[in-house]
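Action item from last meeting closed. Structure (744 res):
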């Protein structure tokens, strides 16, 4: 393996590697030559190809070291290394034909020779494949390529809780509660499938750019119902887990640890999110194991003074030494945290999220990624982006799914050596390349196999620093060589001329044409499957539901989803703002009615459902009942094109069943109120069943482009069943309602 000494040698290795279409590479090199921008150093040339989106940083680093073979794993092309863990490295890959990005977890070849590690790796695949929940990383496939065994998972575009705290410090208490509750829901789904994670920690819980939480890495889990799958006993392993987050009973005997050990690990993770350190951050591994059994962690109230006592009490119960004193299931943890997650939170900030090189983002050169924030995890005051606000120019974006840690440290932290070629990434009018990932030093090699990418020797320097406690037999005893490593530095570049930009535009057009063609092919072969996957049913209910609140379901919903209320009664008071609910329906389960009731501890002024600037949402078949104590049941306001209330009942209200204030649709996409029924509270004379009002001081929107049709109203009203307090817009339409509308 010889590192390239010149640009031509580097380009020859790029061609031999097969990571880039040769015609595209030649065209780009000719474009650079036309403006006199071809450097003589291979590191600078690599930097230009990274900057312009032709190579990823990982590919450039490997080729600069002379490694040009094996940039594929089975049917997948390797783009970036995302991180590594106890059971192998994880890579961001792209399917060669479908162009779908996935995370591929590779078992090192040395560990594959160890029967315990190999069987545990396949057990992880079986465990992950059996789970289907929005808060768990999905597993797509498991395969073998020569000596490589690998698992194909969804690529979650986000960061671990470990990284969030590392980059931004301890989290705000209610934000942490949202994340922990979502993780508890995922663990509860696994628990119901008979599975225990056994390594719950901040590094194994991911948060994507919308605020959706996913539990990662089921590598230490086992099925309790599978008597033949007792590998920990078969290979006489003593302790499995991570010392900083290990339950007391799990340190004594991992084989008998149950779901309550996961609850302890989740409680320790909660403690870490709020304090910025594990419960026992100092000491050796042995000391930590003892302290988990004998000591109490430092009270959170002495660490910071803004943590509610009730949240501290939840953590204390989750981390009780006696498993019987803890919450007994993750669903109980979710219920305990429900009062702290009623208000939505903002999505993670961009600076908290990892950055990939342009070629790994799925965005064509010159384009920007379109980012959509979480509907129910966002509040307008949380930052510059409101919930579901789209930023940037629309650009093709592959299915979201990273499942590992990404190093985003400043470039200056990467060690450099003067004798090796360095990838030098100059600035450009495209998203900047990310900070470098430090690859393990490759051993000097002379054979073709050793010139390949050393999958079993490439490790990440971003792994959770917490001590691992795993006595699994390991056969990987080979010594690493002292070969050269690639570094990265940022330097300026000469300005491109006019011809450069003309060529750039032409190439961009060609790239877009290629993407359109690829999209057509994908539509022929993969579209049907994707459409089926898009039409999900999210069940809400205490019995038989995946979620306990509509708010929580909306946080995980996407266009085309049905949010189904499975219980006969549902208690919630929901405020939704700046939400693009296009294609999302909220409705009861088929063949059953549902009554939406107020919470017992809420005042009479809070509506059951308040929708502010909500677009495209369809609410149907639900009866809202104020139990004769709520003033207004449903409130609509703001620009809300496509919002529909259909077959909705309004009963037990004191002032109005529905208030419409400064609310407007669009031409062709009105706000529709169809087949509503209304009856006020007993012995009450409400103002109106539907009350229209307009306050120009509050919002410039008028009540316009609204259709009220086929509604029936009972009871007595002080004004009229439908009363317009202020004049609405010219497209406020009423028809076929009983009785008629009245107004000033």
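Sequence:
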């Amino acid at each position: 393996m010889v590192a390239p000494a010149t640009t031509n040698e580097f380009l020859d290795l790029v061609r031999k590697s097969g990571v880039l279409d040769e015609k595209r590479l030649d065209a780009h090199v000719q474009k650079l030559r036309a403006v006199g921008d071809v450097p003589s150093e291979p590191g600078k040339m690599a930097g230009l190809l990274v900057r312009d989106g032709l190579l990823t940083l990982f590919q450039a680093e490997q080729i600069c070291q002379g490694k040009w073979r094996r940039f594929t794993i089975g049917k997948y092309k390797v783009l970036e290394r995302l991180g590594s863990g106890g059971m192998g490295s994880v890579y961001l890959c792209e399917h060669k034909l479908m162009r779908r990005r996935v995370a591929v977890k590779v078992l090192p070849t040395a560990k594959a020779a160890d029967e315990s590690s190999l069987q545990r790796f396949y057990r992880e695949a079986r465990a992950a494949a059996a789970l289907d929940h929005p808060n768990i990383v999905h597993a797509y496939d498991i395969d073998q390529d020569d000596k490589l065994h690998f698992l194909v998972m969804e690529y979650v575009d986000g960061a671990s809780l470990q990284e969030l705290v590392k980059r931004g410090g301890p989290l705000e208490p209610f934000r942490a509660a949202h994340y922990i509750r979502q993780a508890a829901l995922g663990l509860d789904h696994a628990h119901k499938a008979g599975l225990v994670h056994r390594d719950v920690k901040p590094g194994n819980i991911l948060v994507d750019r919308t605020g959706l939480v996913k539990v990662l890495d089921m590598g230490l889990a086992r099925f309790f119902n599978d008597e033949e799958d007792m590998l920990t006993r078969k290979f006489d392993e003593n302790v499995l887990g991570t010392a900083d987050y290990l339950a007391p009973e799990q340190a004594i005997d991992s084989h008998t640890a149950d779901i309550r050990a996961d609850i302890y690990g989740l409680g320790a993770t909660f403690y870490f999110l709020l304090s910025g350190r594990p419960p026992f951050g100092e000491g050796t591994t042995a000391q930590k194991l003892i302290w988990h059994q004998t000591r109490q962690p430092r009270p959170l109230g002495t660490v910071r003074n803004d943590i509610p006592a009730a949240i501290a009490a939840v953590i204390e119960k989750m981390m009780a030494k006696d498993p019987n004193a803890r919450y007994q299931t993750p669903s109980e943890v979710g219920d305990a945290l429900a009062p702290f997650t009623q208000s939505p939170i903002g999505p993670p900030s961009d600076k908290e999220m990892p950055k990939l090189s342009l070629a790994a983002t799925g965005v064509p050169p010159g384009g920007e990624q379109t980012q959509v924030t979480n509907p129910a995890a966002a509040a307008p005051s949380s930052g510059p982006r409101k919930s579901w606000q789209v930023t940037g120019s629309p650009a093709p974006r592959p299915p979201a799914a990273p499942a590992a840690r990404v190093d985003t440290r400043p470039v200056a932290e990467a060690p450099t050596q003067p004798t090796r070629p360095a990838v030098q990434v100059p600035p450009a009018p495209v998203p900047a390349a990310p900070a470098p990932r430090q690859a393990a030093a490759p051993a000097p090699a002379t054979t073709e196999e050793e010139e390949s990418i050393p999958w079993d020797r490439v490790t990440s320097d971003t792994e959770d620093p917490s001590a691992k406690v795993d006595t699994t037999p390991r056969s990987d005893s080979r010594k690493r060589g002292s070969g050269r490593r690639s570094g990265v530095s940022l330097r300026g570049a000469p300005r491109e001329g006019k011809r450069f930009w003309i060529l750039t535009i032409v190439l961009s057009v060609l790239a877009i044409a290629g993407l359109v063609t690829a999209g057509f092919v994908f539509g022929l072969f993969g579209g049907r499957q994707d459409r089926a996957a898009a039409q999900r049913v999210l069940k809400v209910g205490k019995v038989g539901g995946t979620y306990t609140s509509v708010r929580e379901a909306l946080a995980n919903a996407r266009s085309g989803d049905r949010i189904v209320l499975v219980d006969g009664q549902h208690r919630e008071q929901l405020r939704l703002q700046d939400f693009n609910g296009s294609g999302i329906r909220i409705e009861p389960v088929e063949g059953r009615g549902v009554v939406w009731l107020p919470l017992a501890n809420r005042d009479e002024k809070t509506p059951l459902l308040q929708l502010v600037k909500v677009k495209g949402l369809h609410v149907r078949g639900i009866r809202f009942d104020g139990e004769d104590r709520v003033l207004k049941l449903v409130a609509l306001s703001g620009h809300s094109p496509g919002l529909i209330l259909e077959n909705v009942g309004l009963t037990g209200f004191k002032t109005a069943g529905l208030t419409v204030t400064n609310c407007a649709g669009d031409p062709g996409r009105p706000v529709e109120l169809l087949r509503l029924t209304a009856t006020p509270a007993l012995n009450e004379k409400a103002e109106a069943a539907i009350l229209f009002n307009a306050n120009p001081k509050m919002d410039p929107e008028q009540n316009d482009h609204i259709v009220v049709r086929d509604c029936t109203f009972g009871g007595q009203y002080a004004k009229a069943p439908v009363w317009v307090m202020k004049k609405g817009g010219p497209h406020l339409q009423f028809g076929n309602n009983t009785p008629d509308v009245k107004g000033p």
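Note appended to the action item: The longest helix spans residues 498-525.
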